[in-house]
Amino acid sequence: MSTLLPTKGAHPLLLKYLAQLALHPLRTKAITTGTLCFLQEVLGSNLSGTPANVSKDASPLVRALGSAHIDTKAVKMAIYGFLVSAPLSHFLIGILQKAFAGQTSTRAKIAQILASNLLIAPIQTSSYLASMAVINGATSLEEVIKTIKAGFFQVIRISWVVSPLSMTIAQKFVPVELWVPFFNAIQFVLGTYFNMRVKQLRLAALKKQKQEEERK
């Protein structure tokens, strides 16, 4: 298998990360995912131009953190990444890799992509939407289910486009030991982009609503 990201000659920090990933896979993935989810929320808020909601009576430290959008929601996103997303992904991807370990035929690669999209993606999507519902204030099971139903197909369609492409690239060019940082990088970029777009659309909707109210 040809490799785009060979481990030989890799940066020492990457080698240390891979060593920790091999020794403590779940812990390393949890810390990584929690950190990336935190950064996604912070970057998404800043890049979208979302106004900071900071009390004038807050301390200088709180105002500084709030201005940078380092807030409660960002912390909740980090907790989601650490306690929900990473363990679930670790478990599901582990099953997938074990099921197709040592299989390099075209049929096996296609089957791996199909299994990822039809079995793993729906579980991860439902988990993500349920967690976002709770983070955004859902207090009942009905509200969580409603959120999942409303957003499931929108999210899964994106996953069905991105996942096969990234999986194909990984199968052809990325050694298995680098799959975790490779997929983390893709998820981080896409997650930050969609986070930013959602916030921009929300701001645009609020601006339009305000303009309509002013015309009345």
Automatic annotation (TrEMBL):
Keywords: Membrane, Transmembrane, Transmembrane helix. It is found in: Membrane. The keyword Transmembrane applies. Its main location: membrane. It is a multi-pass membrane protein. GO terms for cellular component: peroxisomal membrane. Belongs to the peroxisomal membrane protein PXMP2/4 family. This is Uncharacterized protein.
